[in-house]
Amino acid sequence: MAEELKERFGELLRYAKHVAELTNRTIEEIVKGEPQYLYEAAIHLIRAGGKRLRPLATVLAGRMYGLPEELGVKAGAAVEILHNFTLIHDDIIDRDNLRRGVPTVHVLWGTDVAIIAGDLLFAKAFEALGKLAEHAPPERVVKAFNKLSWASITVAEGQALEFDMVKRDEVTVDEYITMVYKKTGALFEASLLIGAILAGAPQEELEKLSRYARGIGIAFQIQDDILGLTSTEEKLGKPVYNDIREGKKTILVIYALKHLSPEERGKLLSTLGKKDATREELEEAANLIKKTGAVEYAKNEAKKYFEDALSALRDTKPVDEEARKLLEDLGWYVILRGK
């Protein structure tokens, strides 16, 4: 499937690589200082790779309404820096030892330094966005700041909702959707809107992009949940079954708990959130989830959100049609990447 994706999305992937290179250079210019070990810790995951999908979204949304690519890259770098702040802290919370195929920040530098490195990136994200004041109308930069602040707050709310859901056996799909929108979709939405805001896009266009981003963000997280259950550590760059070990109520777990027999439900619940669960226990839990048809259900739900997102994007009125086409391809790429 990887080769098929490369062939189908060749133009998108080439442009994504171009944007990633520009974004990486921009971030390297911003995330530097003393003490050196703190900045090395802060930029560790960024240097480890990543597709830079959020900066790509910022650049493309900006281009749709006339924003020069170079300004989109600067804004996208701010979003990517903020994203990596959340990753560092997420890895601490989840006790993950791997991210993007490398040891996580807290494993290499310790939890104290990792927390400070994340805090540093949080501040650097706003510093990066502030540099656009020299190139864009002040009122647009202020709106972009507000959107990045909103995303930061909303991501924190999503994380808190996830904490609450881990503690409960009964969680609804609607609660899950709200949580993943806040935790994952909001930052993707901000990525798009910041680019469009800086370009001066009208409010009705921003609303269409919001709907597109919401659908793609939710579909992306559902797909990520599926990969966490069905993929391999080599492909993920992090441990499989970690969601089960952490007791996360993914859409697959929620579905499975409603469709298993009482005995099987009890078995799954006994493994969910068990930090010292063996590989065999985790695999047994994963198989219980799969046997209910949860994977197929989750894929269908992701498809619904994706189709709504696509409908919203196709209703936009861009000045750059190529940018809209690439943004549509990005949505397809997100939903197909794990198949």
Task: Tell me what you see in this structure.
The chain is mainly α and 339 residues long. It has helices at 2-8, 10-30, 36-47, 53-64, 69-94, 105-109, 111-130, 138-167, 173-199, 203-230, 233-236, 242-245, 251-259, 262-271, 279-291, 294-314, 321-336, and strands spanning 98-99, 102-103. It has one domain (2-336): Farnesyl Diphosphate Synthase (Orthogonal Bundle). The protein has a two-stranded antiparallel ribbon with strand order 1-2. A hairpin with a 2-residue loop joins strand 1 and strand 2 (102-103). Helix 3 (36-47) packs across helix 5, helix 3 (36-47) crosses helix 7 (111-130) and helix 9 (173-199) crosses helix 10 (203-230). The model has no long low-confidence stretch (mean pLDDT 94).
List the topology elements.
Blueprint: H1 2-8, H2 10-30, H3 36-47, H4 53-64, H5 69-94, E1 98-99, E2 102-103, H6 105-109, H7 111-130, H8 138-167, H9 173-199, H10 203-230, H11 233-236, H12 242-245, H13 251-259, H14 262-271, H15 279-291, H16 294-314, H17 321-336
Antiparallel strand pairs: 1-2
Helix pairs in contact: 2-4, 2-5, 3-5, 3-7, 4-5, 4-9, 4-17, 5-7, 5-9, 8-9, 9-10, 10-16, 13-15, 13-16, 14-15, 16-17
